[in-house]
Amino acid sequence: MFTFSRNKERIKEDGNSEIIIPMLPLRDVVVFPHMIVPLFVGREKSINALESAMKEEKGIFLAAQKSAQKDEPMEEDIYNFGTIGNIIQLLRLPDGTVKVLVEGKKRGLIKEYIDNLDFFLVKVEEQKDLVNTE
Predict the structure, then answer these.
(1) Parallel, antiparallel, or unpaired: how do β-strands 36-41 and 98-114 relate?
(2) 104 within 8 A of 34, measured Cβ to Cβ
(3) Burial class (CB in 10 A: 0-12, 13-18, 19+), 64
(4) CB-CB contact of 13 with 21 (8 Å)
(5) 3-state DSSP call for residue 55?
(6) Which residues are registered as beta bridge partners of 89?
(7) How far is residue 17 from each of residues 46, 79, 91, 125, measured CA to CA in Å?
């Protein structure tokens, strides 16, 4: 059973929520919750994902690529765990690339890739933080 919140998240019975969100595959960097990181983005698909996230005000899912050498990663080239983040600042540079400042908010797990030709769009399940009680 699911309930829906106002921001289009689905809240599952176990308390975790699911959201459909644009994804930015990252090379040579992992963003964790509570981190603020500047990123330089040049791939067209990645820039499209950032533009969609800014327009929809939904945030962005940040997931690391398994190999930084892949210029056009496929689903199997991206780790399933990542971070749901917010875009703090986006700056277009003269060479066509984008500098973006992102803040990691919550851990997330990709549950499904949604068909989209312009950029990666994923259904992500928020993962609760693990707390050591020892």
Answers:
(1) antiparallel
(2) yes
(3) middle
(4) no
(5) helix
(6) 101
(7) 24, 20, 31, 6
The architecture in CATH of the region 21-122 reads: Roll (2.30)
Rounded mean pLDDT, 114-126: 94
Ramachandran quadrant class, 3 (left: phi over 0; alpha: psi -120 to 50; beta: rest): beta
Q: What is the residue extent of each domain of the chain?
A: 21-122
Looking from the CA of 85 toward its CB, the CA atoms found within 13 Å total: 31
42's tokens: 């040049």
Strand bridging mode 98-114 / 120-127: antiparallel
Largest CA distance in the chain: 52
E-assigned strands of 1-134? 2-4, 10-12, 17-26, 36-41, 60-64, 81-92, 98-114, 120-127
Tokens of 58: 């939904």
Asked if pLDDT for residue 35 goes beyond 90, the answer is yes
Model confidence pLDDT, tens digit, residues 7-22: 455 545 455 689 999 9
Type of residue numbered 72: E
Question: What are 97's two structure tokens?
Answer: 């690339």
